[in-house]
Amino acid sequence: MNKTMPTEISLEALVAGDRAEFARLVDAYSSPIYRLGLRMLGDPQDAEDVLQNTFLSVLTHISEFEGRSSLATWLYRIAANEALMLLRRKKPEVNLDDVEAADEAEDLLPTQFVDWSALPEDELLSGEGQRILDGAIATLPESMRLVFLLRDVEGLSIRETAEALNLTETNVKTRLLRARLFLRERLSTYYGGHMSHEE
Amino acid sequence: MTEHAHTDCEKMLGFLSEYIDGGLNPELCQEIEKHLAGCENCRVVLNTTKRTIDLVHAPVEKPDLPEDVRARLFKRLNLDDYLKPK
Fold it and tell me: Where are the beta strands (DSSP E) in B4-69?
C-alpha cells in the first residue's frame, strides 16, 4: 500500500497470539507511527506515548479487527485517535474541526507567484530548506496536518486516509488541497525572498 | 491573478490537488491545461505545489525510530525476547 511498509503480516497469526508475528508488526509500523506522533504533537515524549498506546490498543483489540479496511489503515486509525486524544488533553484550546470554519474564508487564494520550482534539489533540500519545510508543516492547523501527513508523508490513498480518519473522501480532498496550498505559500515566501537576494 | 476571468483561476485552484494526483477525467484535464496555457500565475502555482509535494516525499524526510524508543516499546509490549538489532 505504500513504500514504507512492504512487510506482509499474517492477521491469522496475530489473532492467534503469535508474539513473533506481533514483533514483526511492531517493527514494520513503528517508524511511521512515531513520525506521525512527532509531527502531530511536536514532542518526542508525546510521540513515544502515542506509539506505545497505539500498539497496546492493537494488542487488546486485534481479535475485533474485521478486515473492512487494511491492517495498515486500521493501525493508522488507532494512531491518529491516540494522537488526537493526547492533543486534546495537552492543548484543549485547539479546535480540530477548524477547517470547516476556515473553508468559509478566502485565504485559499495564493498570493506568492515566484517560480522557485526549478531551483536545484540540493539547495531545496539543504539544512535551511528542510528547516523551513518542517517549520511550515508544524504550523499547519492540526485537522489539515493529520490529513497531509497520512496522504503526502506516509503515502496512504485518499480512500485509506478517509477510512483512517473517519472522514468523507471529499473532506480529505478539501483538507489536502488546503494543506498543500498552505505549505506552497510558506515555501514560496521563503524561496521567493531567497531568489530575489541572489539576483 | 491576470487579465482573464478570476473565476477560472479559482476553479483551477479547486481541482489543483486532484490534477496533480492524476485523479481527474480527461475532459477536465483538458480544460485545466487550456487555462494553464494562458495563465502564468496558475502555472507557477501548479509548478511550486508539485515541487512542494516532491520535497515532502524526499527520503531525508523519513528518519527511523530511535533505537532507545524501540527498546522501550518492545519492553512495554513484553516483546523483549524479540528485540533484535534492525
Answer: none
**3-class DSSP assignment, residue A34:** helix
> How large is the C-alpha radius of gyration of chain B?
23
3-state SS track over A70-91: CHHHHHHHHHHHHHHHHHHHHC
**Helical packing angle, A19-41 and A71-90, nearest 10°:** 40
State mean pLDDT over A59-70: 91
Domains of chain A: 11-90 (1.10.1740.10), 98-198 (1.10.10.10)
Using an 8 Å CB-CB cutoff, list chain B residues near A152: 53, 56-57
Q: How far apart are CA B33 and CA A77, in angstroms?
A: 37
B1 found inside a domain: no
Choose among A30, A59, A158: nearest Cβ to B70. A30
Q: What cell was used for A119?
A: 531551483
pLDDT of residue B50: 96
- Measured in degrees and rounded to the nearest 5, phi and psi for residue A112 equal -110, 125
B2 chain-A contacts, CB cut-off 8 A: none
Decide if A129 contacts A116 (C-beta within 8 A): no
Tell me the mean pLDDT in the region B58-80.
87
Q: The complex's ipTM?
A: 0.88
Q: Which domain holds residue B61?
A: 6-82
d(CA A44, CA A37): 8
pLDDT digit string (tens) for A101-133?
444 444 578 989 999 999 988 888 888 888 899
Total structural domains within chain B: 1
CB-nearest partner of A52 from B47, B58, B76: B76
Q: Is the pLDDT of residue A87 over 80?
A: yes
Q: What is the pLDDT of residue A4?
A: 42
